[in-house]
Amino acid sequence: MRPFEYIKPKDSKEALRSKTPTGAYIAGGTNLVDLLKKNIAVPHQVLDVTQALSDSIALKRGGIEIGAMVRNTTAAINPAILEQFPLVSKAILAGASPQIRNMASIGGNLLQRTRCPYFYDTSLPCNKRAPGSGCGAYDGENRMSAVIGYSADCVAVHPSDLCVALAALDATVVVQDAKGKKKSILFKDFHRLPESTPQQDNTLPEGALISEVHIPKNAFHKHTAYLKIRDRDSYAFALVSVAAALQIDGNRIVAARLASGGVAHKPWRWLAAEQFLAGKEANATVFAEAAALAVQDIQPLARNAFKVDMLKGAIETALQEALQA
Ligand SMILES: Cc1cc2nc3c(=O)[nH]c(=O)nc-3n(C[C@H](O)[C@H](O)[C@H](O)COP(=O)(O)OP(=O)(O)OC[C@H]3O[C@@H](n4cnc5c(N)ncnc54)[C@H](O)[C@@H]3O)c2cc1C
């Protein structure tokens, strides 16, 4: 690890003012410290935002606001989230380990970097870590890689479980730019596809802070499921994951939300399948048809064709679990 200056600003204004172009914010440190140790992140200044940002959760008429410094565990066991946004709790609890969730913040979770092995091994080519060096995974070890939305420059997947739930629930990310001005970014526009600039994971302006996440009120609280398939039962990132939420009236689906992790450079919404489900009867045949529709555009790489059937089954099962929740 290289030496750096450590600063602990008392509020967001001071944090934004103090940050230099080569500085990095640190919250829980569960991702940044790994990147520092491997010389993948080499900031000359580290700004600890644990005092500078909100760690409160506020239930409002239009939805819920979760401060960027709320720890993942705190969010997962918050009574308002458990009652009205249980998908968020289920997704957080499917990720990492209790110790990591105790440290990890909501803001940091959104900005954690891919777990693609080529990104973490500095002896291998990776356009995301070293732009222009190539993508080792494209024709290499791509078992964990993307199956949709990728480019020849990058096949890495977004690793967060929480973000899959936030994508399904149409969350908004509230950010404060370098001048302190607040603006909201729709979750669907926050993470980006790799295209020819995979080094940019998201649309957060340079130097900006995430100040909170807002989830609009919805009618999906009764029927939600988060299904994560991984190599080990805990402490592993998703091969594929599915967040499913249903609004049900009698046995009819009023509205559906479906999103996945482990499939693309950003949390992926299955919009055609959602549209197909709306207005249909909630039953196994309809769920199977929705899953088939979702996977029809998938283009797996050489070593991850297994994800197609896995995903199809996971979507069917998640919808069934959501119905029975
Ligand atoms: C062994 C292991 C297993 C894991 N398994 C999973 C898993 O299964 N599922 C899953 O979802 N996650 C998993 N994680 C990832 C973990 O959830 C993230 O590391 C964590 O959420 C990041 O939060 P943090 O507060 O520690 O971020 P930090 O490490 O502090 O920061 C991460 C990044 O965000 C930036 N940052 C932090 N806060 C802000 C802010 N408010 N505004 C602007 N920039 C900010 C930092 O500069 C840094 O670039 C795992 C991590 C480990 C180490």
Derived structural class: alpha+beta
Poorly predicted runs of 5 or more residues? none
Count of DSSP-assigned helices: 13
Radius of gyration: 19 Å
Q: Walk across the major sheet and give the strand order.
A: 4-5-8-6-7
The outline comes out as globular
Helix content: 25-40%
Major sheet details:
5 strands, antiparallel
The unique ligands bound to this protein are: flavin-adenine dinucleotide
Q: How far do the termini sit from each other?
A: 47 Å
**SSE order in H/E notation?**
EHEHEEEHHHHHHHEEHEEEEEHHH
Let me know the number of strands. 12
Mean pLDDT: 97
Which percent band covers the strand fraction? Answer: 15-25%
How would you explain this protein's 3D organization?
Helix 12 packs antiparallel against helix 13. It contains 13 helices and 12 strands. The mean pLDDT is 97. 30% of the residues lie in helices and 21% in strands. Strand 6 (172-176) and strand 7 (182-186) form a beta hairpin. It binds flavin-adenine dinucleotide.
Question: Any key phrases for this structure?
Answer:
about 325 residues; alpha+beta; 5-stranded antiparallel sheet; 4-stranded antiparallel sheet; 12 strands; binds flavin-adenine dinucleotide
